[in-house]
């Protein structure tokens, strides 16, 4: 059996464990859902960067720029972090530079991994198919400013569950995620309504985004980070 492990926050990611692994970066609400949508709707690439300055500087290199802090779009950028903005009409053929509060930072913690994929409910089935054949799988949950986000942990637990015929969990974080998933799946919407980030997004009037991010298998793609860019696999 191969191993599956989970990091509940990016800060917990251990390069020694990531080495030689296949890593899945997850920020269900909403960064990785937006990136899957962008690539699924025909964007050429998505480049996650950590600062607003770096993001803005890529405008002159032909990028669309997307920026979010605290759930809100930043003035002066082309896009925010709503996956619903990433329509084919807007993103097809485009390079998109993106900076978000957590997701674009969290992917940097995966750098020691052998390969890095982007996970969301929107591409769960395709992701599962790719992961079945891999050796050690590591899920990095983006969370919020160093704290775990329950929506990411539940998703990680679903990956643990889907891989249970080929992979065995070897840390308690993966066990926590698996147990949480088993409890949450009976009534996902009710369970998630307690999540801090769900409350934050609801306050901003973004229920449509939450509903969209919880849709399964909208895209049959598994975007992958190659050097600095997320591209279609
Ligand atoms: O932190 C992030 O990367 C974002 O996904 C947060 S938000 O959903 O845009 O508020």
Order of helices and strands: EHEHEHEEHEHEHEHEHHHHEE
Into how many domains do the coordinates divide?
Answer: 1
- Profile the largest sheet: 5 strands, parallel
Distance between the termini: 25 Å
Radius of gyration: 16 Å
**Share in β-strands:** 15-25%
Q: Identify every distinct bound molecule in the structure, by name, code or SMILES.
A: (2R)-3-sulfolactic acid
So, CATH architecture? Alpha-Beta Complex
Helix residue percentage: 25-40%
Mean pLDDT: 97
Low-confidence stretches: none
Query: Helix/strand-derived class?
Result: alpha/beta
**Which homologous superfamily in CATH is the superfamily?**
ComB-like
How many beta-strand runs? 11
Shape: globular
Topology-level CATH name:
putative 2-phosphosulfolactate phosphatase
- Assign the CATH class: Alpha Beta
Tally of alpha and pi helices: 11
Tell me the strand order in the biggest sheet. Answer: 7-2-8-1-9
Please tell me about this protein's structure.
By secondary structure, the chain is α/β, with parallel strands linked by helices. It has one domain: putative 2-phosphosulfolactate phosphatase (Alpha-Beta Complex), CATH 3.90.1560.10. Helices cover 36% and strands 21% of the residues. It has eleven helices and eleven strands. The strands form three sheets. The protein has a five-stranded parallel β-sheet with strand order 7-2-8-1-9. A hairpin with a 2-residue loop joins strand 4 (63-69) and strand 5. The longest helix is centred in the last third of the chain and has 13 residues, at 150-162. It is globular. It starts with a strand and ends with a strand. The structure holds (2R)-3-sulfolactic acid (3SL).
């Amino acid at each position: 059996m191969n191993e599956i492990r989970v990091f509940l926050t990016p800060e917990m990611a251990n390069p020694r464990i990531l080495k030689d692994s296949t890593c899945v970066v997850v920020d269900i609400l909403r960064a990785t859902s937006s990136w899957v949508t962008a690539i699924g709707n025909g964007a050429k690439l998505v480049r996650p960067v950590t600062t607003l300055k770096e993001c803005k500087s890529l405008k002159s290199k032909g990028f669309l720029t997307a920026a979010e802090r605290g759930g809100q779009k930043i003035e002066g950028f082309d896009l925010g972090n709503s996956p619903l903005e990433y329509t084919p009409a807007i993103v097809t053929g485009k390079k998109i530079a993106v900076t978000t509060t957590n997701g674009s930072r969290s992917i940097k913690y995966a750098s020691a991994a052998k390969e890095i994929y982007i996970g969301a409910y929107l591409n769960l089935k395709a992701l599962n198919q790719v992961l079945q054949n891999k050796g050690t799988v590591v899920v990095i949950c983006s969370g919020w400013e160093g704290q775990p986000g329950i929506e990411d942990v539940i998703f990680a637990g679903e990956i643990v569950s889907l891989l249970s015929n080929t992979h065995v969990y070897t840390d308690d974080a993966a066990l926590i995620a698996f147990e949480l998933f088993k409890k949450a799946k009976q009534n996902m919407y009710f369970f998630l309504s307690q999540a801090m980030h769900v409350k934050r997004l609801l306050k901003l009037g973004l229920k449509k985004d939450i509903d969209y991010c919880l849709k399964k298998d909208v895209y049959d793609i598994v975007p992958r980070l190659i050097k600095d860019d997320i591209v279609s696999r």
